[in-house]
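quick q for whoever's on today - can somebody do inverse folding on this one?? i tried earlier but teh output was garbage lol. tokens:
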């Protein structure tokens, strides 16, 4: 059965916190070292929902198997057309194409909202599945920041990938934006 991709709601906070907590404790996709609790996850989700940013979950077999959201890449006004994506998949659901479904929908919804660029800041250059996912979705490698994070007793790079949304930089954005 194919997963259902839908807009996230605050009722998804426990599942999102569980998935993200596992990623923080066992992986290098996030440079956080202590998983935030549900109260913090709720606060973060609410801020993105209030800001009308896309926040999605993938439902599979009655549970949340993954989630994705986009937020501003940077908060200064000149960056207002550029987003950064985040995609996290429950370990039991990895390798089933859920990340690609979430990312494709996230890109489409971001484009519909008038954003022009999506940045992926991938924690750890050894995150080959995440790099491959983004490459398959049309992202290109634009840089690597070496040894910028320290977690699990080792230095980690950050890989930077980028993808144009809609017209990208080929036209001037609406001045009302």
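ok took a stab at it. sequence:
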């Amino acid at each position: 059965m194919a997963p259902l991709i839908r807009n996230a709601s605050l009722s998804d906070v426990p599942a999102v916190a569980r998935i993200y907590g596992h990623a923080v404790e066992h992986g290098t996709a996030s440079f956080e070292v202590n998983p935030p609790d549900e109260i913090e996850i709720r606060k973060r989700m609410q801020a993105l929902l209030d800001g009308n940013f896309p926040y999605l979950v993938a439902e599979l077999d009655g549970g949340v198997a993954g989630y994705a959201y986009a937020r501003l890449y940077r908060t200064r006004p000149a960056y207002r057309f550029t987003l950064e994506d985040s995609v996290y998949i429950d370990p039991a659901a990895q390798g089933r194409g859920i990340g690609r479904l979430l990312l494709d929908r996230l890109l489409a919804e971001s484009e519909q909202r008038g954003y022009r660029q999506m940045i992926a800041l991938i924690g750890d250059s050894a995150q080959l599945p995440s790099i491959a996912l983004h490459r398959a979705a049309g992202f290109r490698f634009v840089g690597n920041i070496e040894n910028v994070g320290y977690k699990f007793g080792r230095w980690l790079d950050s890989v930077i990938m980028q993808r144009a949304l809609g017209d990208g930089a080929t036209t001037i954005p609406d001045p009302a934006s």
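fwiw The CA atoms of residues 53 and 149 lie 27 Å apart. also The first strand starts at residue 4 and ends at 7. so keep that in mind when u check it
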